[in-house]
Amino acid sequence: MKELLRVENLNAGYGDMQVLWDISLEVKEGEIVALVGSNGAGKTTFFRAITGLIKPYSGKVIYQGREITGTPAEKTVSLGIAMAPEGRHLFAGMTVEENLLMGAFHRKDRENVKKDLEWVYKIFPVLKERKKQLAGDMSGGEQQMCAIGRALMSNPKLLLIDELSLGLAPVIVDVLINVVKDIRDMGKTVLIVEQDVQVALEIADRGYVIETGKITYHGEAQKLLEMDEIKQAYLGI
Amino acid sequence: MKKHIIPLIFLVILIIIPPFLSGYMLRILTAVVMFATLTEAINIIAGYAGYPAFGNVVFFGMGAYVTAILMNHGFGFYLTLIPSIVTAVLFAVVIGFPVLRLRGHYFAIASLGVNVAVMEIVNNLKIAGAAEGLTLPLKKGANPHVVYTYFYYLFLVVLVLSVIFTIWLEKNRFGFGLRAIRVDEDGALAMGINTPLYKTLAWSYSAVFTALVGSIYAYWISYIDPETVFDPIISVKMFVMMLIGGASTVYGPLIGAVLLELIAEVVWSKFVNIHGIVLGAIIILTVILIPKGFLDLFTGGFSWRRLVQNIKENMI
């Protein structure tokens, strides 16, 4: 499998407060990779650093063999990296369909945008039912679907999902897990950041565990789930 | 197209009405048109992009001063318009770069600060007549009514331009991007919208129309000083008109300008001593009863249930 994203010795943070220390990570095409860790471990900061929302202090982000370290967010989206941000950040005053179209904001190929819209509706039928409804009036699970659908509308190669399960009912989480797998089967690569280690490692092919800004373990998701240290620290068994 | 028919009828009336008006009425109507344009301009940055530009009057003052200074150096009025626009846009870009990073109240305060700073600079600028202000050459005409009509039409042209621009903005990608910034700037950024560029452009467009109005105002009044053309009260007025009429709509700001300017005129003549109180009460009532503005009342229809709901939601 070809490598899609490689992060080398990434150091990043906010001003004097360094959050990430020498993070290295790799995502191959067609994989689902999970970055797991508890609150405050630096997961969201990691996403912000690779999507260009903050500038890393040092290290490299290589995407499709090209260095994109510090490329601003509006450019990384057109390179094919889409993000479903934590807390969803839907546009509350806009309808579901308008929200989805916002995901295709930078695209010029209008014909394909229409096709992709139908495609997203196929993945999330509930969004089609509610396309005229205001996004802010939907339930948390539906909003998360809308956020993922919106990210897919930019026709990304790499889909970043920040906190897939946060604040959602277990039933909804199960639905979303299957959807993420479907999205991968349709040829997208997924990098997911998640505080629910169980959920994340169930979906993912490989996983990285981050603790206070440093990667402590990584490997195949199944093997990580079986590790005693991880069982004790995150799964409570 | 349908929703533009009524405004078009109003436009025709506005075009043919001047000969039938007294000098006093024409002056009031000119002020209404002027404030409608200023409000339409602030609507771009404060309405659509959601950045409360409380210092927007700074562009008005700049336009006025560029025209005044240049006309005092022998330039014709129309020749001063391009420099007026260029100055305002340059200022919006240079100041916007740092100031537009602030959000919400912080931006409002910073833009207000910028306005006061520019006013103080002009207060001490020899070429701008410092605190004494500047006198402009008078517009010549056969009689006062002809002169007043001339300025009325000038303002009207800029108003029409600003409305056309806003209609274009509503339909355009750019307007869509601004709406996204207003609702959720982080979300907009994650969607790949170049938010710093969009915000700066929005403020620049706002500056263009505000500066043009400032230029015409200076020539119309023919005497300006820093205290009047950089008066923060003008900004407040634009803001209130926008809110009363309906923010981030094409025609809301115009309705707001008409209502507030006419109400202010009536209140001012009937209740000279307490006109501030009456105006303040009207503003508070509007914000509580119809927070989306009067336009919403016309297009969304009136219902007691919504009125009661608004009262419940907006009472302090």
What does this structure look like?
Chain A is built from 10 helices and 10 strands. With 237 residues, chain A is of the alpha/beta class. The longest helix of chain A is centred in the C-terminal third of the chain and has 16 residues, at 170-185. Chain A is globular. The N and C termini of chain A lie far apart (34 Å). Chain B is built from 15 helices and 2 strands. Chain B has a domain at 17-231. Chain B is mainly α and 316 residues long. Chain B has helices at residues 5-16, 23-48, 57-72, 81-99, 104-123, 144-171, 173-183, 185-190, 195-221, 226-229, 232-245, 252-270, 275-289, 294-300, 304-314; strands spanning 134-135, 223-224. The longest helix of chain B has 28 residues, at 144-171. Chain B is globular and about 55 Å long. Classes of the chains: A alpha/beta (237), B mainly alpha (316).
Q: Sheet with the most strands of chain A?
A: 6 strands, mixed
Average pLDDT taken over every residue of chain A: 89
Structural category of chain A is alpha/beta
Counting DSSP E segments of at least 2 residues, the number of strands of chain A comes to: 10
Principal-axes geometry of chain B comes out as globular
List keywords for this structure.
heterodimer, A: 237 residues, alpha/beta, four-stranded antiparallel beta sheet, B: 316 residues, mainly alpha, two-stranded antiparallel ribbon, 2 strands, globular
